[in-house]
Specification:
This protein is an alpha/beta fold. It has helices spanning 33-43, 73-82, 100-108, 119-128, 142-152, 157-171, 186-200, and strands at 2-4, 22-26, 48-49, 53-54, 69-70, 85-91, 94-99, 113-116, 133-138, 179-182. The radius of gyration is 17 Å and the shape is globular.
């Protein structure tokens, strides 16, 4: 179920010179935001999903330029000093960031952009682009989130507990977003997210 929160200006994309919309999707780790975002790119093939840059090493199966742009810490820090990042964060000893030039260029071209970023990064984007549309994905419960993290097999028990602690802090900020979607059933959540995006886009 999606809950809409009223805001002053959500940017409906009206006008002849259409500026691309910026959708921000955030969620705790394990809540399913990457799966949902990937589904949106399939549903809306003319919408671009921004690929983040990171200093962590690729995981098995990850592809450069598709999952992430992989870089080194010195290059990333130089980008911070140069103002290259629309948003950036240091998470679990690794840097993650979104290219400001990429997002601004696509929006100028009239292309809608989807950002899959955490609440830390979303706060930076909202400050820079107040017309961004924020969507927060909620897990059914903390117990279910823990089960999902365990089933992924990517983290040891200590890392899972740290992720759950962060998740609790992130969920406390859900009301900063325009919409909240409960990802209890994946197909329902995909339908809800697609419906929100469709309402903002020009027919």
């Amino acid at each position: 179920m999606a809950h809409q929160h009223t805001t002053a200006d959500t940017g409906d994309g009206s006008g002849d010179d259409r500026h691309g919309l910026l959708f921000i999707v955030s969620a705790p780790s394990g809540a399913g935001k990457t799966t949902l975002c990937d589904a949106m790119v399939v549903r809306f093939p003319d919408m671009i999903q921004s690929v983040s840059h990171t200093t962590r090493h690729p995981r098995q199966g990850e592809v450069e330029g598709v999952d992430y742009f992989f870089t080194d810490a010195d290059t990333f820090r130089a980008g911070i000093q140069a103002g290259r990042w629309l948003e950036w964060a240091r998470v679990h000893d690794h840097y993650y960031g979104t290219s400001a030039d990429f997002v601004e260029e696509k929006r100028r071209q009239g292309t809608d952009v989807l950002l899959n970023i955490d609440v830390q990064g979303a706060k930076q984007v909202f400050a820079r682009f107040p017309d961004s549309i924020g969507i927060f994905i909620m897990p059914p419960s903390m117990a279910e989130l823990k089960k999902r993290l365990q089933s992924r097999g990517k983290d040891d028990p200590g890392a899972i507990e740290r992720r759950l602690a962060v998740a609790s802090q992130e969920m406390a900020l859900k009301d900063h977003y325009h919409h909240v979607i409960l990802n209890d059933d994946l197909e329902t959540a995909i339908h809800d997210l697609a419906g929100i995006i469709r309402r903002y886009r020009r027919p």
